Structures are given as structure tokens and as C-alpha cells.
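Dataset card, provenance and construction

Sequences and ligand SMILES were collected as paired inputs. For each pair, a complete structure of the chain with the small molecule in place was predicted and serialized as C-alpha cells. The example below shows a pair involving flavin-adenine dinucleotide. Curators did not alter the output after generation; any descriptive sentences attached to a record were derived from the structure itself.
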Amino acid sequence: MQLWDRILSEEEKMLRRSVRSVVKKHIAPLAQKLDEEEGFPWEQIRSLADLGILGILTPEEYGGAAGSKLAYVLAVEEVAKGCAATALVFFTQTHGALSLLLAGSEEQKQKYLPQIASGEILGAIAITEPNAGSDAAGMATIAVRDGNEYILNGNKVFITTGDKADVITVFAKTDPDARHKGMSAFLVEKGTPGLIVGKTEKKMGVRGSSTAELIFENCRIPAENLIGLEGEGFRICMEACDYTRISTAAQALGIAQGAFDIAFQYAQERKQFGKSIYDFQAIQFMLVDMFTEITNARLLLYQSAKLIDEGSREFTMEASMAKAYCSEVAGRVTDSAVQILGGYGYIRDYQVERMMRDAKITQIYDGTSQIQRMVIARNMLKRLD
Ligand SMILES: Cc1cc2nc3c(=O)[nH]c(=O)nc-3n(C[C@H](O)[C@H](O)[C@H](O)COP(=O)(O)OP(=O)(O)OC[C@H]3O[C@@H](n4cnc5c(N)ncnc54)[C@H](O)[C@@H]3O)c2cc1C
């Protein structure tokens, strides 16, 4: 038994086995082609829907699996191990449901959550703007109430699944003069007049996911699409980010594990100077450091998820530590994996170069490593007095 398995329940281990088997059969074999073709993982998401895990965090009454946060982490990690882009689209689906789970009305939950959980519709979350990335409260998209409607105007950029999503959680200012207190959250459906899909980005990694610009031009939505109350958007966004950071941490951990597995096996098979390169201490020590860092990252992430499962509402610092640490481990581990494979590591067929490119984004989205450190520093002052 591995050290981290001591934290998992039998149910969670069972879920991990099921996801692992689906990833092995239906997701990992398509990862390289998906990356090359810069496609969208339709089939892969369908196989996760068939497994019943698209609504893993959603309560059963709304068609979800009511799984633990730890089960969710295991699922994202397993998918990312085989294909980081599919993991991104998978957790973006969960993120599409998050604001509803945190602050949605009963009608909104009933209308959207079962369809998101079944994969009938795709979700997305739109916060980032051309001039408001790390500083989300600096956003300029505005929503003006007009009778029974809101009119949205503004631009969002880098929205995962933005061009394909059927329902998008959009954050906008209902009071443009107030910073974070003027933010509100809305649901915008695909096809709403005034919602325009702009540029879709060409990326370094996670190429099998789509990243789109969204333009709102006098986009009218029903007033009942406001999530929570006016002015609650920043709180909803920050609470959602505590969860989204756990998702990215799990994705990063999966990428690191995937690269380690390839490098570990390769080191034992590759012969130079008449012996396997694993017999060279230089290579052994690299693999030891990779394995130790992955173990540390996993323990931090699983314990953070467990903390949430035990009902703690104070997990902002843990989520940020897990996100910053796992993503940086993924960067170092994938870099070492390419090094261990030598020239082959640089060749696409051997997969670790894809993993190295995929790892980088985990240090950027859902709050950069710098922003996570700011969050941790703020919380250290409160928690470690
Ligand atoms: C592939 C991809 C998918 C994405 N998906 C989504 C999505 O689905 N929804 C969504 O809303 N957004 C999404 N994003 C956007 C992503 O969350 C932002 O890119 C990220 O938050 C950083 O914002 P920025 O790019 O504007 O960088 P900036 O905020 O401009 O940061 C630039 C640099 O300055 C640093 N910096 C900024 N402020 C500080 C500070 N106070 N102290 C120290 N350093 C600082 C940053 O760490 C970074 O190194 C996605 C981005 C990509 C690339």
C-alpha cells in the first residue's frame, strides 16, 4: 500500500480504479492525436459522462454522483495522467456548475445541474478579461438592469470551452464604480443574441481544449439568470476559486505522475555503456527526487480535499498551497522526464514533451503561482499568529 492510500476510503479507491480503466481504454490512447490536431475531446468527455462522473460534486437530487472532494481529485488526477486537455474540459464542466452549487436558486439548479451532470450540455466559467486577469475585480464587463432583463456589454478572454459551452457563468459589474463589491454573477446561454464568440486561441499546451474570446454586445438575458444577489459576484467567484484551485492541482499532479511513469519505465529499459541508465546514480537520483516531490504534492492535495470533505470552510490557504506546489512539481517533474528520455524525450511520439507543455499552464490559470503566494501570505498572517 502506498502512503497516500491510507487516506482513501474503499469507495474512493473503487472510483479511482474505474476512472483509471476508462482512461486507459478511451482517453490516453487519443491524447497525442488530440494534441496534434488541436481538437476537442468530445468522445473522451462522453466516456466520462457514461461513467457518471461529470457531476461528481453535484448532489444526487440534481442528477449528480454526490462524491467526496477527494473522489473528485482522484478522478481529475487519473484523467490528467492520460490526457491533460481532457482533464481541463472535464473540470471546466464541474466549474460550470460550481457557482450554481454555491449560490444558485432552486429553479436554476433544477434547470441546469442535471444536464451538466449528464453531459447533455457543456458548461464554462468566464472571469478573465483583456485588462483584468489576476486582478479580477478590475473587470470592465457591465450588466445593467432593464425591467425583467439585464443587458451585458464587454469582453472576456481565454475562456475554456467558451466557444462550445451551452451555459456560461459570466461575472460582470452591476456597479461599475465599486470594485469587488460591484461584481455579480450571471448565467448566459449559448445562442443568446449579443453573445459573440471571438478568437479561439492557439496554445503551447492543453491543445485538445478550446480557449475562446467572448464578446457581449447588448446581450440581453432574463433577470432570473442572476446567480445569488447583485454585488455577491466577487464572493461567489472567490469561493469558486478555492475549488477550481483544487482541480488545477489535481490536473498538475496527474501530469507529473504520467511523466514519471514514462521516465521510470524508460530508465529501466534504455541501455547505454552496457547497462540500463537506471543503474546510473545520476538518473536514479533524478527519479527519486521526482517521486518524492510527487508524493509530497499528493499528500498535500489529498489532505486539503479531505479537509473540505470534513466540513471545513477554511481551506483557502490549503487550496492555494496545493495549487502552487502541485503545478510547480509538474513543471520540474516533466522537465526531468524529458531529460531522462534524452533525445527521445524531445520527440512527440514519446509523450513527455506534450506533458511538459501541458504542465506550464497549471502555473498560470486559476491564479498564477505569484497570486497563490499572495493568498497564502495573507492567510498565514491570520492562521499562524
Ligand atoms: C489555456 C487557458 C485557459 C484559461 N481558462 C480560463 C477560463 O476558463 N475562465 C477564465 O475566466 N479565465 C481563464 N484563463 C485565464 C487565466 O486564469 C489568466 O490568464 C490568469 O489568471 C492570469 O491572468 P493574466 O493572463 O491576465 O496575467 P496577469 O494578471 O496580467 O499577470 C501577468 C504576470 O504578472 C504577475 N502578477 C500579476 N499581479 C501580480 C501581483 N499583484 N503580484 C505579483 N505578481 C503579479 C502574474 O503572476 C503573471 O506572472 C485561462 C487562461 C489560459 C491561458
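Derived descriptions for this record:
The longest strand covers residues 149-160.
The beta strands are 123-126, 142-146, 149-160, 167-173, 183-189, 195-200, 211-222, 226-227, 271-272, 275-276.
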